[in-house]
Design a protein that fits this description.
Mean pLDDT: 76
Low-confidence stretches: 1-48, 54-60, 514-523
Number of domains: 4
Number of strands: 21
Order of helices and strands: HHHEEEEEEHHHHEEEEEEEEEEEEEEE
Strand content: 25-35%
Oligomer: single chain
Length: 523
């Protein structure tokens, strides 16, 4: 490969001038363990340099003679270098093959959050693309209707229980109970009023805390967006977030208190209704055995109804809480809407479950399989990964007219092993899949391999300086070398660039042979 810095050095040395070299290298994303050897400067470039040097040389015959001696030495060295570059000496090298393509970052394992109850949505605390942590409250419900339903169920159950019990009482016992019930009803009525007042105060406090939390979360979201924007140096900073743990805990505590008070209210209301029912029950009713069985079944059904209503209320009061760290990929509900039971409200991708989807062309089918190591480059950042999935069904490609073509590409997925906060979902990525590696194997440069109807072959120069053909078997390949699994030996002198005039059995004539007849050069 032509190297401008190398040429500059050799030209300056040929003219008797010494200069400093300064090579600046840029890191390459795609690499090959085996590397090409450096080529020498062409002889005619050196000759031109010598002529230019002579043109500016001040002095007589001695200066000219010295310059000619330098030219002769430099030309000999250059010719030897050309001869060396024309032949490649076979040695064991490491060759690594990789396939490159493009892809898009995606969430690999999405967790769907469904509504456990049918209730009105009070607050939604997240949005698409937001990073969340385990324990964060994603959504809260308005539990007023759930609480009312629980109270009604308990009232109905206890009312039915009271009526059933009354069926087993004698008229005298019913009268005694009615008197006692009247007194208890008065007490429960006052207790119901007190509990309602407590719940109203707690709801006011809850609303205040929720408003504060919403303000902090909005500020944090803005800070995260601002921190994610690279500065003039291309770096991002850690966001300075306000802590919401204390406020979140206060909200949970208030919800628990409201939940307990609601249960207490339902209990007091049920007891009040029960006593009122007893007061109105005065008749002596005779109950048959079949009626007793019906009453028992009704009580069991009432208990089941109460338990279901209680469970719905508890789940509504808890809201929806994140059970893992991750990124919100979808939100399917809005504030004020009614969430139906089993309806999917959010999808969350785990923080460690980010990868890349990419297309595999038909030329690479069979080369890429699950388990292979890969590199993913997103912007200026590189991540390690593993091929986790290769589809068995091709995706049809469409032509210019919009019709489906006869073929398509296979979709694959790579799981990124080291995702970080700088990795965003839905971003274009460059993908490199390592499909093969051979260590300490024989290889030849790309330009040295030839192919005809008989197969692949190389030309080598034997000890008698004659050209010989060697048929070879190739293995994997990198961006510079073909692996040769059979057909060559260590130390073979392989001709890099075969010309049409070269034939097996011919004496090998180096490319610099035409220069040996120049004045001052040894014959």
């Amino acid at each position: 490969m032509y190297n401008e810095n190398d040429n500059t050095t050799e030209l300056n040395e040929a003219a008797g001038v010494i200069v400093d070299e300064q090579n600046e290298g840029k890191p390459e994303i795609k690499k090959t363990v085996a590397k090409k050897k450096k080529k020498k400067t062409p002889i005619w470039v050196i000759v031109l340099a010598i002529v230019a040097g002579l043109a500016v040389t001040v002095g007589g015959a001695i200066a000219v003679k010295n310059a000619m001696n330098k030219m002769q030495t430099a030309m000999k060295e250059a010719m030897e270098g050309m001869n060396n570059d024309a032949l490649y000496t076979v040695e064991k090298i490491d060759i690594e093959q990789e396939i490159s393509t493009s892809g898009t970052t995606v969430g690999l394992d999405e967790n769907a959050y469904t509504s456990p109850v049918t209730a009105k949505v009070n607050e939604i605390n997240v949005e698409v693309g937001q990073t969340i942590h385990k324990g964060d409250v994603l959504l809260t419900y308005d539990t007023s209707e759930l609480g009312d339903n629980l109270a009604k169920v308990k009232i109905q159950a206890r009312s039915e229980a009271a009526a059933s019990n009354q069926s087993f009482e004698t008229a005298g016992e019913a009268a005694d109970k009615a008197a006692a019930a009247k007194k208890k009803a008065k007490k429960y009525k006052q207790q119901v009023a007190d509990v309602k007042a407590d719940i109203e105060k707690l709801n006011d406090t809850l609303t205040s805390y929720q408003d504060q939390l919403s303000d902090i979360q909005a500020a944090n979201a803005k800070e995260e967006t601002k921190a994610a924007v690279p500065d003039d140096k291309g770096t991002t900073r850690e966001p300075k977030l306000q802590d919401t743990k204390e406020l979140t805990q206060k909200i949970r505590d208030i919800n628990k208190k409201i939940s307990k008070k609601s249960e207490e209210l339902a209990d007091k209301q049920a007891k009040l209704t029960e006593q009122q029912t007893i007061v109105s029950a005065n008749k002596d009713v005779k109950v048959s055995e079949s009626t007793k069985a019906q009453v028992s079944a009704a009580r069991e059904l009432s208990d089941m109804t109460i338990n279901a209503a209680q469970e719905s209320f508890d789940e509504g009061a808890a809201g929806i809480v994140a059970d893992e760290d991750g990124v919100v990929t979808s939100v399917a509900i809005v504030k004020g809407a009614y969430a139906n039971e089993t309806q999917t409200l959010f999808t969350i991708t785990g923080a460690d479950d980010i990868g890349v989807t990419f297309s595999i062309s038909k030329d690479n089918l069979g080369s890429i399989v699950p388990g292979q190591a890969a590199r993913v480059v997103v912007g200026s950042r590189q991540y390690e990964g593993t091929v986790s999935y290769v589809s068995r069904v091709a995706t049809a490609e469409t032509g210019i007219a919009g019709g489906s073509t006869s073929g398509g590409s296979i979709q694959g997925k790579i799981k990124i092993d080291n995702p970080d906060e700088n990795l965003f979902i839905g971003v274009a990525a460059k993908v490199y899949v390592f499909v093969g590696r051979s260590e300490q194997t024989f290889g030849v440069p790309y330009e040295a391999l030839n192919t005809d109807i008989k197969g692949d072959y190389v030309y080598v120069v034997d000890k008698d300086n004659k050209i010989q053909r060697k048929d070879v078997t190739i293995g994997i390949y990198s961006d510079e070398y073909y692996e040769i699994t059979d057909g060559i030996e260590e130390g073979d002198k392989v001709i890099r660039n075969v010309t049409k005039d070269m034939k097996p059995g011919d004496v090998y004539v180096p490319q610099n042979a035409a220069m040996t007849g120049m004045p001052g050069m040894a014959q």
